[in-house]
Amino acid sequence: MSKTKEFLKIIGSLVLLIILTALVGVFLGLAGFNPNTSGAGIIVVLLSQLVFGVCTYLIIKKKNLYINDRGILKDSWKMIIIGLGTAGFGNILLSQVVMALGEDNALVKNSYDMLNTAFGTTNTFETVIQILVLVIVAPIVEEYLFRGYVFAECKKMFSLPASLILNGLLFGLFHMNLLQGINTFFLAIVLSLIYYHRANIKDNIIVHMSNNAVAVLPAFFPKALTVISAITIISIIFGLYFLVKICREKSA
What's the chain's Rg over C-alpha atoms? Predict the structure, then answer.
């Protein structure tokens, strides 16, 4: 089968997952649950991630894919630094994008509205769900889906640079949000590099969890926002050092 057909299969799988996500909201709406109310969006996101998880499992099982998993290694702590660094870089990047477009830009406003609807919380229970979704469920599901399946399959057909870019584009588009899309594009490239060179999905999950945790921490420790920002900025330097070293070790 041609590369084009194989690649279209990957896109088809992602489109199907997006449709299933939409259906989750539709079914909840028919059941009398309004996903657009404050705090309700996070429940929809949780259910959507669970649907993603089941579908990803079925895809991997059907295609008999081998997911590289060496467990938590003695130097896996470095992945935390890389994750914090990607979060720091992402925050700087997004601030520049917002500054360039302007906070009154319709696309920027729409992006913020979508994020507030999806991840806004009004009580402790919803906040716990938010942490569960962003820091635990999403990183696990998305790493198996986008690195274990999408990137691995792209790498069979294309060069490493092309696979990195394609994975970044698909990961960004999958989030269907301008600001998230820009951020996740670069995050996906880092995660794909780590999966390629480390061959360990657990390392990917740690990086992804650390990155997402930065988005949640300010809500619990608003007074520590300056400290958190400083840590992520410092982590950019050390995270980049670790990432470059990882790539060189594999290439050596």
Answer: 18
Alpha helices in the chain (DSSP H): 3-30, 41-63, 78-101, 106-119, 124-131, 138-142, 152-157, 160-174, 178-198, 201-220, 225-251
DSSP string, 208-242: HHHHHHHHHHHHH-GGGHHHHHHHHHHHHHHHHHH
* Dist. CA 222–CA 75, nearest whole Å: 31
d(CA 164, CA 36): 35
Closest CA to 85 of 249, 252, 246, 250: 246
Cα–Cα nearest to 209, from 133, 157, 155, 139? 139
pLDDT at 158: 95
Per-residue pLDDT at 4:
85
* 3-class DSSP assignment, residue 31: coil
How would you class 239 by CB atoms within 10 Å of its CB: exposed for 0-12, middle for 13-18, buried for 19 or more? buried
Confidence (pTM) = 0.93
192, two tokens: 């794909």
pLDDT band at 36 (very low <50, low <70, confident <90, very high): low
Is 37 exposed, middle or buried (CB count within 10 Å of its CB: 0-12, 13-18, 19+)? exposed
Least confident range from 43-47, 86-90, 187-191: namely 43-47
User: CA-to-CA distance for 14 and 236, rounded, in angstroms?
Assistant: 31
In this predicted structure, the answer to whether residue 252 has a pLDDT above a threshold of 50 is no
